[in-house]
Write a structure and sequence with these properties.
By secondary structure, this protein is α+β, with helices and mostly antiparallel strands. It has 2 domains: 319 residues, Outer membrane efflux proteins (OEP) (Up-down Bundle), CATH 1.20.1600; 81 residues. It has 9 helices and 6 strands. Helix 3 packs antiparallel against helix 4, helix 4 packs antiparallel against helix 9 and helix 8 packs antiparallel against helix 9. It comes from Flavobacterium chungangensis. This is TolC family protein. Keywords: Cell outer membrane, Membrane, RNA-binding, Signal, Transmembrane, Transmembrane beta strand, Transport.
Amino acid sequence: MNIKKIYCTVLILLFCAIQTKAQEVLTIEQAMTIALENNFEIKIAKNNSKITETNVTIGNAGMLPTATANITDNNNLTNSTQVRQDGTSTTLNNAKNNSLNYGVSLGWTVFDGMKMFAKLDQLKELQKLGDAELKRTILVKIAQVNSAYYDLVQMQQQLSALDTTIVISNQRLTLAKNRFSIGKASKLEVLNAQVDLNSDQVALLRQKEAYANGKILLNQHLARDPKIDFKVTDKVTVDNKLVLADLMELAQKQNPGLEAEIINKRIAELELKQVKADRYPTLRLTTGYNFSESQSSLGFTSETSSKGLNYGFNASMNIFDGFNQHRNEKVAKLQIENSQLAIEQQNITLNTQLSTAFQTYLTNLELIDLEEDNEAIARQNLEITLDKFKIGTITTLDFRTAQLNYVNAKVRYSNAQYEAKLSEIALKELAGNINF
């Protein structure tokens, strides 16, 4: 039995086991869809975005009038004595006095130095900032889902490699026992074969543990029961057509971090407009309709009442406030300057991250081709070594070396694919271009 037949046998056994367990086959597209629907951080970011959207109203900007209804009812019981000019007096115990006032008042600020318009524009920018934060959260979580998913693909491939080497180790142990039984090998060869088989089984158990924990982690990202079992696809497809210049151009338009800094500058500029508005007068119109009634058990007047309309305006202007206006404007200008510096810093950071990530991406693409060739060579070497081992023309040490070289080559090839996929995900995350 050559290595190709052994590998096919292992795949068939794995396929049967998977079919028996009827595991869910989870694709990366399904995983991203579940994350978008279930992930708690994405849900919180969506709600925060809705909050900023809800806050964009002309009323919140102070453009609409305010109406207030009020009612006041006072009652008291007193012991009262009144002495008149002629010397006569009147005394009344438990004298009842009450007053009732109610009405509606309306106020409307019709001019405040255009502060209300700057406030409305600022609320709109805050909504855009909430949208950018939502986009950033989605990109980060989707990137995490992709990383966790392809980590499982990598571990699943390595499980297959370890299953293959156990089949080979079992065959080697059987051959060693047969050769020992007919006197062509020593007991030491059987013991060595058993030790190597045990080592392979330990490695397989460790890999199964890591694979199970990887499933739990992915379920956490998907915000679902960690006990849900599934399998992932067995291939890693890497996009090898990425171009650095295109990624940088996309990042300037779509990177949520850079977008947030640009919005923050606009918010700072609108804040300065609101501060400058305090230099202008504020005009407020007021009107209302009020009714009042009072009753007294003792006095010249036992009952009074009034009702009517009132109206007017209020104008105010800051003349001197201890130079606070000048200070506030200076601070607001410095905030704008800081915002511009933050944009420039974000640009440099973004271009640096893209450049380094792209270099890693190119290296990993080369490693995929190299490790693929290494795996093919290691497989061919193991096939030849296995045939020689069967006829006793090669030592067990040489056979074990060839076996380990094959397993390590498969693991390295799997790792190269995974690392290249991580590089692709990182680049697309920076460019704000992960498809989901």
